[in-house]
Write a structure and sequence with these properties.
This protein is mainly alpha-helical. The chain has one domain. Helices cover about 45% and strands about 5% of the residues. The chain has 4 helices and 2 strands.
């Protein structure tokens, strides 16, 4: 159990209230348009799987996954709607906006 806690502490997730701002943002190139969507998605999925925040074909519905998603998107792509929706809806919206048209080109 202690080894698992050290792993989560290493990744920036802590259980105490005072360390709530220690989440580490991955060094993933930010999503900027449809040209780098699939590259961004593959790297984001690998990162979220590595830290246990990915399930099936979408991120887990939790504040950490939403924060990581939002922190890997260029500012001009953000919408006010993203504040009210969860991580899965956000991920699906980005797929509809940027991932649909390029699937046959890859």
């Amino acid at each position: 159990m202690l080894r698992a806690l050290n792993f989560w502490n290493f990744l920036g997730f802590r259980s105490s209230k005072s360390d709530v701002f220690n989440i580490q943002v991955p060094n993933i190139p930010k999503l900027s348009d449809s040209h780098n969507y699939w590259y961004w998605r593959i790297l984001l999925r690998a990162y979220l799987e590595a830290i246990g925040l990915w399930s099936g074909n979408a991120p887990l519905e939790c504040p950490q996954s939403k924060f990581i998603l939002l922190s890997t998107i260029e500012l001009w792509l953000l919408s006010r709607d993203y504040e009210a929706i969860g991580a899965i809806a956000l991920f699906n919206d980005l797929y509809l906006r940027f991932g649909m048209g390029r699937i046959n080109e890859i």
